[in-house]
Fold each of these.
Amino acid sequence: MPEKCSDDEFVDAWKRLGSISLVAHELGLSIRRANERRRVIENRHGILLDAFNDRRGFKILHPENKVRSIANITGCVIVFSDAHFMPNETSVAFNALLKVIKKIKPVMVVANGDILDGATISKYGPEGWQTKPTLKQELESVQHHMDAIVKACKGLNVILHRTIGNHDIRFEKRLAGLVPEYKDVQGTRLSDHLPEWSVSWSVLVNDNTMIKHRLQHSGIHSGYNNVLKSGISTVSGHTHLLEVKGWGDYTGRRWGISTGMLANPKSQAFDYIEDNPVPWSQGFAILSYDNTGRLLPPELAEVIDGVAYFRGSSI
Ligand SMILES: [Fe+2]
């Protein structure tokens, strides 16, 4: 049988999909043939193509559309959200994130939505006469910061994944509404500009933790409502609240984690709050899984008065 793709194409598909059934489907190979290619490539290049996405098989139409399911995660997973990266702004929490990555060596980093603010492509009009950064300036800031995370993870064999936030989707939504003929043209999706990061609406880890930017509940009790109604631990952004709500029932202990905001609450991205007090907090969450894949009590890194703290010390 002729080889239908290059080794590089196969490895690229594997890194994105992590499942023999999904890779075979995308490349038009039989599962048997795809497995043969996998072994040949592993031997030829001295690499290991581990499956990390085998729980849902063909139920995942494409990881960008639905859930990405990742099994057999042990070790630490860092989840941050709501970075709203702006030009010429770098938050204390962002610098802390890079340091914590180097310190704890996570197996996965999840950008849990709203890396892009997209003020100029919002359906809402401007709040006043102030000048907003252009979309190009915002996109360059997103790439600059996301690249810095990729560099901090270098050599660690980390899965880099992002979930889609309601602000991120503005990038595609605007174009899809105005020029639908450009569908699938390179550069018209935010993911085209962040090739190292796989993307989906949500991520299910070890069948016990759902990570998603905006779960069904928002508001002050979102952590409680989300964990109560999801039946497994939940990790959500969007509210800018940073907290861990424990819950338990006959199925055992679980947590509703709100991942705060990587952005500074005083960033120009949030002028719309009109200087009102808000319970938002700069920081991110750290999940640890034991060697059976069970989620252990979650931890937070938090910025207070301009200083980031993690595990009882400043970072
Ligand atoms: Fe959001």
Note: The chain has two domains: 7-51, 67-314.
Amino acid sequence: MTTRKTFRAFRTEETENGFISSVKEIELRDLNENEVLIKAEYSSLNYKDALSASGNKGVTRNYPHTAGIDVAGTIESSNSEKLNTGEKVIATSYDLGMNTDGGFAEYVIVPSDWVVKLPKNLSTKEAMAYGTAGLTAAICIQKITRTIKPEDGKIAISGATGGVGSLAISILSKLNYKLVAISGKESEYEYLHKLGANEILSRQEIEAFANKPLLKPLFIGAVDAVGGSILENIIKSTDANGVVSCCGNAASFNLSLTVFPFILRGVSLMGVDSQNYPMQERQKAWDLLAYEWKINQIADFCDEIKLEDLNEKIKLMLDGKLKRRVIVKL
Ligand SMILES: NC(=O)c1ccc[n+]([C@@H]2O[C@H](COP(=O)([O-])OP(=O)(O)OC[C@H]3O[C@@H](n4cnc5c(N)ncnc54)[C@H](OP(=O)(O)O)[C@@H]3O)[C@@H](O)[C@H]2O)c1
């Protein structure tokens, strides 16, 4: 009998006492056709990971499971003609970390179609400092900047201290846009200004806007990660021909509006789904993050942890108390 190679992974198991996650030694399986084995160097913590690692069956149906919707590392073996051993890569999205074992592990096996080559100007650590949140922010920004220029007006960013929000602020500020951060954390206003926010609106302020179909125009664009009444009030306060990108539901998945912002002001509401974003466009977004839009010292904005520290950070994330992005060194 041959002994299989083993590796460490943050495994979530369903037990009589509920879902329990811990670092376990597990066996490496053989590669199927078109799959690659990535020796993981970094992963990052996203809200979906916190849900998966705490037993949310809307995200992950079957346990035991390894969460982690993104990973960056080096191809250790390849059953695909497109990717060679030794290449540095990023894998995010599709089913990674949901019902396919994910990035919270020393080794990750994925179909080669899920893999993007790491741009030369990015390290694996920087790639995961962006992670899925950075990719999502980049897609939102691509949609806005196609038609909206810095001189056209202000861009609103909701969920501003979160992964998507904080990275969107850093990138748009580098591109010279004037930014209004919308945040529920008064203690973090100074940090938001440091990232590049010019003004800050508290969650309470925007939620208290008048309940009318259209409001005084304040913004020409927005990156919205929260949905619900905050997104409603952003759309109602967007000026003629503005572009609002919608990527998240941290507050609510509901949206109650009239058609007036769209038919009287020509506002565009752009949906963003990083999970199924086309591969060619995905590579372009990573190239933008690596070159033109690169945030200096991006890894300094993150806390670097080990697999053993994940439980503590996941709890903080689920309690809405996480203040910085978390990257996992493998
Ligand atoms: N569509 C996609 O492809 C895609 C990809 C990645 C993420 N997402 C989604 O985007 C959203 C943000 O992701 P993330 O990684 O940035 O998450 P995150 O780091 O947890 O940040 C979410 C932020 O939203 C704000 N928030 C939290 N609860 C809220 C509430 N009840 N009402 C209003 N604001 C609230 C908080 O910011 P403040 O305290 O500063 O307000 C929080 O930091 C999530 O819904 C996630 O599932 C979607």
Note: Residues 42 and 329 are 5 Å apart (CA to CA).
